[in-house]
Automatic annotation (TrEMBL):
<keyword id="KW-0378">Hydrolase</keyword>
<feature type="domain" description="AB hydrolase-1">
    <location>
        <begin position="41"/>
        <end position="158"/>
    </location>
</feature>
<dbReference type="InterPro" id="IPR029058">
    <property type="entry name" value="AB_hydrolase_fold"/>
</dbReference>
<dbReference type="GO" id="GO:0016787">
    <property type="term" value="F:hydrolase activity"/>
</dbReference>
<dbReference type="InterPro" id="IPR000073">
    <property type="entry name" value="AB_hydrolase_1"/>
</dbReference>
<dbReference type="Pfam" id="PF00561">
    <property type="entry name" value="Abhydrolase_1"/>
</dbReference>
<protein>
    <submittedName>
        <fullName>Alpha/beta hydrolase</fullName>
    </submittedName>
</protein>
<dbReference type="InterPro" id="IPR000639">
    <property type="entry name" value="Epox_hydrolase-like"/>
</dbReference>
């Protein structure tokens, strides 16, 4: 039986041809996988919470056939450092921009973000539009564009946002209950059979203990500031790159694209045949959607 500790040390999930480096960037150090087609267009895959770059394991190999693929663990997650500060999404966009510069890959990239990673991706596209060839958001309600309303528990909003924003409290309560939390959350938000016992053990190990939990929950502390940042940046004008907004089944599917529609003239909205974890529940569907998007990259 795979234990949580064994799962965290097991890197056999990484597709052939990828290299893992730890790169210092923007005052922190990130663990980054990179590989794929040398000289190909760059695609950056930004995971959500409570996950790591492992979330992309089913699509990294196929994407590597035509892209140079960059998969960081965001600050606070996986094998990346867990600093006390710097979790504003625009700060984390600067983290990843520094990674690309260190790898010699600076320039326009396709940026794909799931959940929290989608928030980072939007901040990157809004502040540095010339650096984002296309923006893809997967099952995320975005700060400043509907998230605050979705967080309003008094009007039926999602309770966990406000709870996770409280410094120190969530990690105190979840410490020692990581596997229970992952089992309940991942199975409730995904199609049956998506995550087996080894997957759940791996994720529990990646966030085991108060310090790792703190790094993860830190992603939530700046959400209101992130919303103000997004509103200010998007007020300068609409996004000019192609934008693909994907929602899984449920609340996000009802809102997919609506929040971004006023801020881009090149929006495609799609509902995936999945729950929350699009890249793991339906990797072939996602790859086909990204292929459709690539056709727009040469179309002004």
């Amino acid at each position: 039986m795979t234990t949580a500790t064994d799962a965290l040390d097991d890197d056999r999930w990484v597709p052939a041809g990828f290299t893992r480096d730890r790169l210092t960037t923007n005052g922190t150090t990130l663990s980054v996988l990179h590989g794929g087609r040398t000289g190909g267009p760059v695609i950056v895959l930004l995971h959500g919470w409570p996950q790591t770059g492992r979330a992309w394991r089913h699509v990294m190999g196929p994407l590597a056939q035509r892209y140079t693929v960059v998969v960081p663990d965001l600050r606070g997650a996986g094998d990346s450092d867990r600093p006390l500060e710097g979790y504003r999404k625009i700060d984390q966009a600067d983290d990843v921009r520094g990674v690309l510069e260190a790898l010699g890959l600076a320039g326009p990239s396709v940026v794909v973000g799931h959940d929290i990673g989608g928030m980072v991706a939007l901040a990157w596209a809004a502040r540095y539009p010339d650096e984002v060839a296309a923006l893809v958001t997967l099952d995320v309600v975005l700060p400043g564009l509907g998230l605050e309303e979705a967080m309003d528990v008094a009007r039926g909003g999602m309770w966990h946002f406000g709870f996770f924003m409280q410094p120190g409290i969530p990690e105190m309560l979840f410490d020692g209950h990581e596997l229970e939390f992952f089992t309940a959350t991942f199975t409730a938000l995904s199609n049956p059979g998506t995550f087996d016992e080894a997957d759940l053990a791996w994720h529990a190990a990646a966030y085991r203990g108060r310090d790792r939990l703190r790094g993860g929950f830190s992603q939530y502390h700046d959400l209101l500031t992130d919303g103000a940042d997004n509103r200010a940046m998007l007020a300068r004008g609409p996004l000019t790159m192609p934008v693909l907004a994907v929602g899984g089944a449920g609340r996000v599917a009802e809102e997919v694209g609506r929040e971004l529609a006023p801020h881009t003239n090149r929006l495609t909205s799609r509902v995936a045949p999945t729950g929350h974890f699009v890249a793991e529940e339906a990797p072939e569907w996602l790859l086909a959607a990204l292929d459709d998007l690539s056709a727009q990259l040469t179309t002004p």
